[in-house]
C-alpha cells in the first residue's frame, strides 16, 4: 500500500463502502450501530468469520481487487460447507497509516463484483488503524433450511468420502508466487496462481448435494477431513491415487517439484470434502452435475480415528504434517 491521507473515516465509508450495502434493507445504509437480519421462513442463520493477514494469507503485491474477492470467497466457502445460501456480510479492516484510498477503492470494487455474482450485500463493519500489517476480517451470514445444515458431526462409518474439483493447485500457486521453480509456465502457471489468489466457493454444490457432513479445504485435505473425523468420532481412509489433481499438478509431480503429500496437505483449495451414504452415489453425481462441479469419491469413513492415506498398492503412506496450522 502507498498511503495518502483519507478525507475522514466516515467520509470514506460513505464514499467507498456504503454503496455496497445498498442491496440490503436491514443495513440501513451503514448509518446505524447494527444491521437487522430476518431469515427466510423455515430457515436458520449460518455465520462464519475468516481473517486475511498480509504476509500470511496474501502477499504485499497482490492486487487489492483480488484480495477483496479472496476475503469474501473464503467465507462463502464456509457457508457452502454448511449447505447455506449467502445473505449478507460484515467487514472489519485494520489498515496501517497513512491509508491508501486508491487501494481501498480498488478493494471495494472487488467486493462489488463478487457481491453481484454471489447475491450477497454488505450489512456493516468497522475500520481501524494499525501499526502492523493490513488485517482484514469478514463475517458471512447465510440461510440454511432448519435441520439441513451439513454438520461435521453427522458422518457415519461406511459412508463414502468425496471431494470437489482438484486438490493442490493453490499450494503450487503460492510456491510460484514465492519464487519457486516448479517447471510450470504459461497457462499452467497462471491457473495455479489464480487458484491461490481467487478460490471458487462451491455454493451451488453445498446447497444441492445429499451429503451428511462437509468441510471446506482451507488448511489441507488431510487436516480438514480430520475435522470431520474428530467431530464424528470416526476415522477415514482415502486412496491417494483417487484424489483429483490438475494437469499442472501432475506435471509438477512428474518433475519431482512436489510430492503427493504436498498436494494433500497444502491448503487454500477451498474445495468441499464431504461424506454421503454409500447408496447415494447416483444422487451425489446428479447434484454435482446440476451444480456444474466435478466430484470424485476418494475414500470411506471408518471406525477408529484419524485419516489414513493409502498408496496404489493399498499400503499406508507416511504423510507427516496433515496441513497448515497457525499455532
Strand order of the largest sheet: 6-8-5-9-7-10
- Cα-to-Cα separation, first versus last residue: 27 Å
The backbone outline, from C-alpha atoms, is globular
* Secondary structure: helix percent: 25-40%
Structural class: alpha+beta
**What is the number of helical segments per DSSP (H or I, 4+ residues)?**
10
List low-confidence stretches.
none
The helix-strand sequence is HEHEHEEEHHHEHEHHEHEE
Strands, count:
10
Main sheet characteristics? 6 strands, mixed
Mean pLDDT: 90
CA-based gyration radius: 20 Å
Strand content: 15-25%
Structural features, described:
This protein has a six-stranded mixed sheet, sandwiched between helices. A four-stranded mixed sheet has the order 1-4-2-3. The mean pLDDT is 90. The relative contact order is 0.16. Helix 2 (64-82) runs parallel beside helix 3 (101-118). It has helices at 9-17, 64-82, 101-118, 169-177, 186-197, 203-208, 221-232, 247-254, 260-265, 281-291; strands at 43-53, 85-96, 121-130, 135-145, 160-164, 213-216, 235-239, 272-276, 295-302, 306-310. 34% of the residues lie in helices and 23% in strands.
Short structural description:
The chain is 34% helix and 23% strand. It is built from 10 helices and 10 strands.
Write the layout of secondary structure elements.
Blueprint: H1 9-17, E1 43-53, H2 64-82, E2 85-96, H3 101-118, E3 121-130, E4 135-145, E5 160-164, H4 169-177, H5 186-197, H6 203-208, E6 213-216, H7 221-232, E7 235-239, H8 247-254, H9 260-265, E8 272-276, H10 281-291, E9 295-302, E10 306-310
Parallel strand pairs: 2-3, 7-10
Antiparallel strand pairs: 1-4, 2-4, 5-8, 5-9, 6-8, 7-9
Helix pairs in contact: 2-3, 4-5
Amino acid at each position: 500500500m502507498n498511503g495518502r491521507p483519507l478525507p475522514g473515516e466516515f467520509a470514506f465509508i460513505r464514499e467507498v463502502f456504503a454503496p455496497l450495502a445498498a442491496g440490503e434493507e436491514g443495513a440501513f445504509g451503514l448509518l446505524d450501530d447494527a444491521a437487522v437480519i430476518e431469515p427466510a421462513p423455515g430457515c436458520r442463520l449460518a455465520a462464519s468469520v475468516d481473517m486475511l493477514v498480509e504476509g500470511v494469507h496474501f502477499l504485499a503485491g497482490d492486487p487489492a481487487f483480488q484480495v477483496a474477492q479472496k476475503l469474501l470467497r473464503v467465507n462463502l466457502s464456509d457457508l457452502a460447507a454448511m449447505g447455506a445460501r449467502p445473505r449478507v456480510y460484515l467487514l472489519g479492516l485494520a489498515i496501517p497509516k497513512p491509508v491508501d484510498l486508491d487501494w481501498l477503492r480498488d478493494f471495494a470494487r472487488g467486493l462489488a463484483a463478487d457481491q453481484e455474482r454471489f447475491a450477497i450485500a454488505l450489512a456493516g463493519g468497522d475500520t481501524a488503524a494499525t501499526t502492523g500489517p493490513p488485517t482484514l476480517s469478514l463475517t458471512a451470514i447465510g440461510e440454511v433450511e432448519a435441520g439441513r445444515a451439513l454438520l461435521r458431526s453427522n458422518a457415519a462409518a461406511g459412508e463414502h468420502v468425496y471431494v470437489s474439483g482438484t486438490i493442490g493447485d493453490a499450494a503450487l500457486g503460492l510456491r510460484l508466487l514465492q519464487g519457486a521453480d516448479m517447471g510450470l509456465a504459461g497457462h499452467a502457471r497462471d491457473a495455479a496462481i489464480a487458484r491461490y489468489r481467487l478460490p471458487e466457493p462451491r455454493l451451488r454444490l453445498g446447497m444441492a448435494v445429499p451429503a451428511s457432513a462437509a468441510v471446506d479445504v482451507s488448511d489441507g485435505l488431510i487436516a480438514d477431513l480430520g475435522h470431520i473425523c474428530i467431530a464424528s468420532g470416526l476415522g477415514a481412509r482415502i486412496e491417494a491415487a483417487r484424489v483429483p489433481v490438475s494437469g499442472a499438478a501432475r506435471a509438477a509431480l512428474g518433475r519431482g517439484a512436489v510430492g503427493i503429500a504436498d498436494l494433500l496437505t497444502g491448503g487454500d483449495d477451498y474445495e468441499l470434502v464431504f461424506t454421503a451414504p454409500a447408496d447415494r452415489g447416483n444422487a451425489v453425481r446428479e447434484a454435482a452435475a446440476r451444480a456444474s462441479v466435478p466430484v470424485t469419491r476418494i475414500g470411506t469413513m471408518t471406525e477408529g480415528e484419524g485419516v489414513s492415506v493409502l498408496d496404489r498398492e493399498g499400503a499406508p503412506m507416511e504423510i507427516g504434517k496433515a496441513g497448515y496450522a497457525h499455532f
